[in-house]
Specification:
Elements (H helix, E strand, L loop, with lengths): L3 E6 L2 E6 L8 E4 L5 E6 L5 E8 L13 H8 L11 H8 L3 E7 L3 E8 L3 H14 L4 H20 L2 H13 L13 H5 L3 H11 L5 E7 L3 H12 L22 E8 L4 E8 L9 H12 L6 H9 L3 E8 L7 E9 L5 H18 L3 H18 L3 H13 L7 H9 L3 H9 L6 E9 L13 E3 L3
Parallel strand pairs: 4-8, 9-13
Antiparallel strand pairs: 1-2, 3-4, 5-7, 5-8, 6-7, 6-14, 10-12, 10-13, 11-12
Helix pairs in contact: 1-7, 3-8, 9-15, 11-15
């Protein structure tokens, strides 16, 4: 028996049918350029609303880093009709929760609440898209919060220092080299008007995508979004000029010292991101990363940790989706009594084995099944569904490309994986080593540099 719920809020009808997920999203584009994508998921009477602004640290320039992240903080400082703190109070009063995060590619504001309360979230987001206001004193206090956030998550964390050092040295021109939270010196010299200008430059309906997933009627959501966001005027977006990274023509090495109980190592190669859905190399690199790491049976943990015992931790990483430069990286912590040079040699040997001998069809099929299972489990989460849609829409793809991307990953051959491994040459390599120093323990775990979540 399928249960149905019917609610009317602000003149909008939201119909929920528990137990059903619609075949595909429904989209609309408002006259002001704002895009709305709604995925109906009727398994629970709740909804996730995510407002994606296509602006992040890759849109910043040297001397003005950290603007996107700090503006995310300031967006909670209120409007003339919704004072500071009132946004979150109203969402909580309605039984929901809200937050935001900034990455290199975008800034996202989200709410999770009962489906019939969705109009409240849309009304509040439309208000602060156009009417944000903050005092200079609010800026000064929040800037101190962000500086402390940087100290705790980067300056006092070995992993944060390593990540920041890696991107700053692996790239010389592409803005992916800038930390999302910004360089401390840039934060020291930031002014309130810097944030106000950034807001007026980038925060407009024509630079935003609203993604809603939940127990809602898509047409009702689109109608409500049109009512709330439709009257807002588009903004004149700054010109985005390509900042193409010059070809790297030699291996780069850098060592950093930080308070840490153990040394660590990262090898990272400059590689392409996925720019067209029919590209081949990014898919092969993605599959190579999954073969090396991701499960206990993957090559790196199996061979380097359990068999050779040269490492206590190992990982491989490659994100093919984004607007900036990309790296394919191998990282690890040497086992007790093992030197960083031994770990580096072991990592290189594993890559050389694949480049020479390739991978078996059995191993490839196992990884395909693991990736397919992960994508299926992802659909159990409304938030994850919205993230996938918003991510694709914000980096230049469409949610319609999702199935094609998955299909292309599944079609990667063993020979393509071997060629991907062969393409990782030393001339495009950056090696970063962490040399541990004695001192006080770090204060809290580091957050990945590509995703700075607002903490309140």
């Amino acid at each position: 028996m399928i249960s149905r719920t019917l609610s009317t809020v602000a003149g909008v009808v939201f119909l929920g049918v528990c137990g059903v997920v619609s075949a595909e999203p429904v989209e609309a584009v408002l006259d002001n350029g704002m895009k709305i994508v709604v995925q109906r998921d009727e398994r629970a009477p709740v909804a996730v609303s995510q407002l994606w602004y296509r602006v992040g640290s890759v849109d910043e320039v040297n001397g003005r880093t950290g603007l996107s992240h700090l503006l995310e903080h300031m967006m909670f400082k209120g409007t003339p009709t919704v004072p500071a703190g009132e946004f979150s109070r109203l969402i909580a009063q309605a039984g929901g929760k809200d937050n935001a995060f900034t990455s290199r590619d975008y800034t996202v504001y989200f709410q999770q609440l009962a489906a019939d309360k969705l109009p409240l979230a849309l009304k509040l987001e439309a208000d602060r898209m156009h009417n944000l206001s903050f005092k200079d004193s609010d800026f000064t206090s929040e800037l101190q919060v962000v500086k402390e956030e940087r100290r705790m998550r980067t300056d006092d964390q070995p992993a944060g220092i390593m990540a920041e050092t890696l991107f700053a040295n692996a790239f010389v021109a592409n803005p992916v080299r800038y930390p999302v939270i910004g360089w401390m010196d840039d934060l020291d010299h930031m002014k309130p008007d810097d944030l106000r200008q950034w807001y007026h430059h980038w925060y407009g309906p024509n630079n935003a995508t609203l993604v809603v997933v939940g127990d809602v009627d898509p047409q009702a959501v689109i109608a409500e979004a049109r009512r709330q966001f439709g009257p807002l005027k588009p903004v004149a977006l700054p010109e985005r000029r390509p900042q193409i990274e010059p070809e790297q023509k030699g291996e780069r090495r850098v060592s950093v010292k930080a308070v840490s109980p153990l040394p660590s190592l990262t090898l990272a190669w400059q590689v392409p991101r996925l720019e067209k859905v029919d590209a081949q190399r990014p898919y092969a690199l993605y599959m190579l990363s999954a073969i090396l790491d991701g499960q206990a049976a993957s090559r790196l943990p199996r061979r380097l940790v359990r068999e050779q015992r040269v490492a206590t931790e190992v990982s491989a990483d490659y994100d093919m989706l984004g607007r900036g430069g990309a790296l394919f990286s191998l990282s690890g912590v040497p086992a007790q009594g093992k030197a960083l040079a031994q770990l580096e040699q072991a990592l290189r040997q594993e890559m050389a084995h694949i480049a020479r001998d390739g991978v078996s069809e059995r191993e490839l099929e196992r990884v395909r099944l693991q990736l397919q299972a992960g994508r299926i489990y992802e659909k159990d989460s409304m938030f994850a569904q919205a993230m996938r849609i918003g991510n694709l829409e914000s980096i230049g793809f469409s949610w319609r490309d999702d199935a094609t991307i998955d299909a292309n990953i599944a079609k990667v051959s063993a020979e393509q994986v071997r060629q991907a491994a062969r393409s990782l040459v030393d001339d495009h390599l950056t090696v970063v080593t962490l040399l541990p120093q004695q001192g006080d323990k770090p204060r809290m775990p580091a957050m990945p540099q590509g995703d700075q979540t607002h903490v309140r």
